Amino acid sequence: MKHTLPELDYEYTSLEPYIDAKTMEIHHSKHHQGYVDKLNQALENHPDLENKSLEELLKSLDEIPEDIRTAVRNNAGGHYNHSLFWEIMSPQVGGEREPDGDLKEAIDDAFGSFEEFKKAFKESALSRFGSGWVWLVESNRKLEIISTPNQDNPISEGKNPLLGLDVWEHAYYLKYQNKRTDYIDAWWGVVNWSKVEERYKEFV
Ligand code: MN3
Question: Which of the 8 DSSP states describes residue 112?
Fold first, then answer.
């Protein structure tokens, strides 16, 4: 079974002005497609791995044959990370965007408040040197913020990603150039918290 590029639930223009259409188009149709293609290529002569889910591949990277381990790590990671990224964003429908219900409670418990959470998340995103991701993860029924380099995924550390922000330059450079901080501030405007809460409920 070949891995395929997931379709978006919205248009490339839908996240404007927070994320511009050109960035969305290149990011989805070129970058993400590239991870999917390279993953399929890496798995081509490994029928035993072809039917594994991305989670299964990422959970036990040390069981992947050495000659394709790096390719799987980068490209199964890239495929999973971007699929999650598209899913936890949605067009702005007006009003303040905030977590709700059990997830809100868990965020308040772990970080003090939503504002404190956003501050810590941003700090982590700004201190990630070079390319990588920042995550809100669930681990042993607790929420944490972690960051990973390249396309590494929290699943490989035994943690469940609920929300992830891509801080590779390709995610923001066209619109925000070197201003990663503006990109992070804007991004809160398109986070789909009900999707994040759905994921949270799967794990707790
Ligand atoms: Mn990306």
Answer: S
Quickly tell me which residue has 């804007």 as its tokens: 186
- CA 31 – ligand 1 centroid, Å: 6
CA of 171 to the centre of ligand 1 (A): 5
Instruction: Write the pLDDT tens digit of every residue in 190-203.
Output: 999 999 999 999 98
Do residue 140 and residue 70 come from a single domain? Answer: no
Q: Which domain holds residue 132?
A: 101-203
**Are residue 81 and residue 126 in the same domain, yes or no?**
no
Of 57, 87, 117, the residue at which a domain comes to its end is 87
Judgement on whether residues 32 and 83 belong to the same structural domain of the protein: yes
Spacing, Cα 115 to ligand 1 middle (Å):
26
Q: What is the CATH number of the domain that holds 61?
A: 1.10.287.990
Task: Determine the distance separating the centroid of ligand 1 and the alpha carbon of 96, expressed in angstroms.
Answer: 26
Model pLDDT, residue 76: 98
The pair phi, psi for residue 161, each rounded to 5°, is -75, 130
pLDDT-based confidence at 97, cuts 50/70/90? Answer: confident
pLDDT for 167:
97
Contact of 92 with 18, CB cutoff 8 Å: yes
What does the alpha-carbon distance between residue 159 and residue 138 come to, in Å, rounded to a whole number? 6
User: Any idea what the CATH number is for the domain that residue 132 is in?
Assistant: 3.55.40.20
Q: How many domains does the chain have?
A: 2
CA of 15 to the centre of ligand 1 (A): 16
Question: 75, 39, 58: which is closest to 153 by C-alpha?
Answer: 58
The alpha carbon of 122 and the centre of ligand 1 are apart by a number of angstroms equal to 17
CA–centroid distance, residue 109 to ligand 1 (Å):
30
